[in-house]
User: What shape does this take?
Amino acid sequence: MPTHFARALAGAACALLAGAAPAQPVFTDSEIKIILSHGPWPALAPADPSNRVSGKADAIELGTRLFFDQRLSASGALSCSSCHVPERNWSDNLTRGVGMSEVDRNTPTLMNLAARRWYGWDGASDSLWSQSLRPILDPRELAATPRHVAQLVREDEQLACRYRKAFGAPPSASDDEAVFVDVGKALGAFQETLISGRTPFDRFRDALAKAERPPRETYSEPAQRGLKIFIGKGGCTACHSGPNFSGGEFFATGLSQFAPRGQPDPGRQAGIRQLMESRFNLLGRYNDDRTGTSAARTREASLEKASFGEFKVPSLRNLILTAPYGRDGGAETLAEVVRHYAALDPVRLHAKDGRPAKPLNLTPREQTDLVVFLESLSTFSNPWRPDDGGQCY
Assistant: This one.
């Protein structure tokens, strides 16, 4: 990035100081490089090689119907959308999710899940389609069985028709599990389409990419100061990297430590075990990627040196819409989250050598600026619109 833009910003800052106004933040070339790494947005994701119907319109249509179908549950009263509510950024704004009963963890958003490495707070699933199967079987959530799901698809004329169009053949009359897995793949195809809109940060970032001066009215100075803290003093990009503001890996930060009733939650440690035991993982027979490339990370998962209580780093996009925060929903506001991290040492947070941590000690103003920046990663525009798809023939 040319230095002339940094100089232009510096000149603008001097002019503001002359007028007794707050100084506009100035970004160095190295800082601009980091900012640019958080885009462009939306980030295009390739089709999932493990899912043969990934990206196919017929599968997306089937998955959409299934997602909102309460008959998918054993009780006939719950659907995927009971916890992942479109109007709530595909979450539920509850401390912990509630299906047939309350679960141990907060309901994560379904936005921007395409092409992730791991799914779930503990990464117990290695594909979006296998993660989609887990809540259907969980007795605390939809509490269904493969047979229940397969019979629903076979016996409902519209679902059976859409299944045939999506997968090229009618649902198997004898293999319940194969039909069940295909339901997960249709659900995965639908969820891949859920992408959040562009935000004030994205417009600011794109102006930097063009070496333009972003209009002040579109991105406030507190947001810019918070951005400077985010990429610098705060050390936030160590975890929240890339266009989706998440590296997709696992860390123990102390924000979420205990499951309900005070029991410790092992997080990634247990997730690895569940992943390797699952017959729906990418090492199993339901992976449609015959090259085996998509299973490479799964093969290595058993060798991970996961510490107790590590959880997946969530995306920060549309964060303002997904309160409460943390794996257990223990933080009600962004300000509370920032206060927590303000007491941590970003360099020592993930170190393994035992040296003591030094608090970050963000000032109250710095904490406020950081909250304003985090709010700039959200948009209230929901690009998804329901589409019945009409009758299937």
Summary: The longest strand covers residues 250-251. Confidence is low (pLDDT under 50) at residues 1-21, 352-357.
